[in-house]
């Protein structure tokens, strides 16, 4: 059902709030392990490289499975896909909590990533289709959920991590179970007559679209910077930094992501085009990462760089997502699957790469390489500005947006 474009972003149907709540909990899983990485390394006798694989296994499976989520959801429906994803996260979070060695936790984080892929890609299309106010409000709401989840995740991880490294995994399982019930109760039954199955190859063929290919490639390099800042910083900070201290640092980082996602990004894109916004903010993130490398060893300086990075990341997340939603005539569920798959694979590369670079060179090197990666993303956007001209055009009506998400067309 399409909703009127007018009204506050807070005036949303109950099913949108149910999915948004589940999104917050799902995105908590990204930063949840951040404060407990040193504790896991110590208590499970793991190296920094092995511990960073907790991110990689999660992100690799999430990225690969993103390519298939539109095929699955177009056959079983959005609600069932969301519920299957949530159920898998609950199960694998529990398995991880009960593990006795780092290899098992790495494996179960991969299963967690499977559930995450089914949920995240479908959630974005569901919110865009059901939210009032069109794509703009929907994406801001989605990115706000992302920012809150990323903010709360490290805080919960830090608080529960003071009790045991297992605590955050048990906590996530409990919250995801609540989200499962919320989706089951509040998300209405969809109209099967509007469901048109997409081809298994649809997301891969979608990447042949020049605009989507540029945005996906830019997001891949951008995500290397994103996850270097998130995953490597706990090891770059002094060894005495506690789980709760790390949780508070990354709570501030995630809060900065949420604030700029919701308020700053819309203000910026109201004044300049989306490609211009990307061309400005990506180089600023490059500078922030380089400065973080220079301040490695300086606790206060590195924390400031983390918070500033969060402010920039919030803008970039929103603008990139809006750009993908407007870049093509492809069904949004397909475009989201293709873009998200490439984006998460970029994130999967960052944590082990950072650990290896630090081992071979210095703890500052991962930040310098991440800055160079984000600069490549900026160059791709600038070089492809003409191809991306459509993302700067006026958005279509909410009715057309909802139709493109819920009905779509086969490729």
From TrEMBL:
* Stretches assigned to the Major facilitator superfamily (MFS) profile domain: 15-389
Listed PROSITE patterns: MFS
Q: What is the superkingdom listed in this entry's lineage?
A: Bacteria
The topology of this chain with respect to the membrane is: Multi-pass membrane protein
Do the record's keywords include Transmembrane helix? yes
- UniProt keyword list: Membrane, Transmembrane, Transmembrane helix
Name the Gene Ontology molecular function terms of this record.
transmembrane transporter activity
Q: Which residues cross the membrane?
A: 16-41, 53-74, 81-100, 112-132, 139-163, 169-189, 210-232, 244-265, 277-295, 301-320, 341-361, 367-385
Assign the protein's first listed, main location to one coarse class: membrane
Q: Record's Pfam families?
A: MFS_1
Instruction: State the SUPFAM superfamilies in the record.
Output: MFS general substrate transporter
The record's subcellular locations are: Cell membrane
Give the UniProt entry's GO cellular component terms: plasma membrane
InterPro entries given in the database record: MFS, MFS_dom, MFS_trans_sf, Tet-R_TetA/multi-R_MdtG-like, YfmO-like
Q: Which PANTHER family match?
A: MULTIDRUG EFFLUX PROTEIN YFMO
Q: What is this protein called?
A: MFS transporter
Q: The organism's lineage?
A: Bacteria, Bacillati, Actinomycetota, Actinomycetes, Micrococcales
């Amino acid at each position: 059902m399409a909703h009127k474009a007018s009204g506050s972003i807070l005036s949303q149907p109950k099913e949108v709030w149910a999915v948004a709540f589940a999104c917050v909990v799902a995105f908590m899983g990204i930063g949840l392990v951040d404060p407990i990485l040193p504790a896991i390394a110590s208590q499970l006798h793991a190296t920094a490289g092995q511990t960073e694989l907790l991110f990689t296994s999660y992100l690799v499976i999430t990225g690969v499975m993103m390519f298939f989520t539109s095929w699955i959801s177009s056959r079983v429906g959005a609600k069932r896909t969301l519920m299957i994803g949530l159920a898998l996260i609950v199960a694998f979070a529990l398995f991880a909590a009960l593990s006795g060695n780092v290899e098992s936790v790495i494996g179960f984080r991969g299963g967690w990533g499977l559930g995450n892929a089914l949920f995240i890609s479908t959630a974005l299309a569901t919110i865009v289709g059901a939210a009032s106010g069109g794509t703009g409000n929907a994406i801001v709401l989605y990115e706000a959920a992302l920012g809150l989840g990323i903010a709360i995740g490290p805080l919960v991880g830090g608080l529960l991590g003071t009790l045991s490294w297992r605590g955050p995994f048990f906590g996530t399982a409990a919250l995801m179970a609540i989200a499962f019930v919320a989706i089951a109760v509040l998300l209405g039954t969809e109209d099967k007559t509007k469901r048109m199955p997409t081809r298994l190859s649809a997301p891969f063929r979608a990447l042949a679209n020049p605009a989507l290919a540029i945005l996906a490639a830019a997001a891949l390099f951008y995500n290397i910077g994103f996850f270097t800042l998130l995953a490597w910083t706990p090891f770059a900070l002094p060894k005495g930094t506690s789980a709760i201290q790390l949780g508070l640092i990354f709570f501030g980082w995630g809060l900065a992501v949420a604030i700029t996602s919701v308020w700053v990004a819309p203000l910026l894109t109201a004044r300049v085009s989306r490609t211009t916004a990307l061309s400005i903010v990506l180089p600023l993130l490059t500078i922030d990462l380089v400065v973080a490398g220079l301040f490695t060893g300086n606790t206060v300086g590195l924390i400031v760089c983390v918070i500033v990075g969060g402010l920039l990341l919030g803008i970039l997340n929103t603008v990139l997502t809006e750009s993908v939603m407007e870049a093509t005539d492809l069904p949004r569920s397909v475009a989201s699957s293709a873009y998200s798959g490439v984006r998460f694979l970029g994130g999967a590369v960052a944590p082990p790469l950072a650990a290896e670079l630090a081992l071979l060179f210095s703890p500052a090197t991962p930040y310098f390489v991440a800055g160079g990666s984000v600069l490549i993303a900026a160059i791709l956007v600038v070089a492809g500005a003409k191809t991306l001209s459509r993302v700067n055009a006026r958005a279509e009506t909410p009715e057309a947006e909802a139709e493109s998400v819920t009905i779509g067309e086969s490729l």
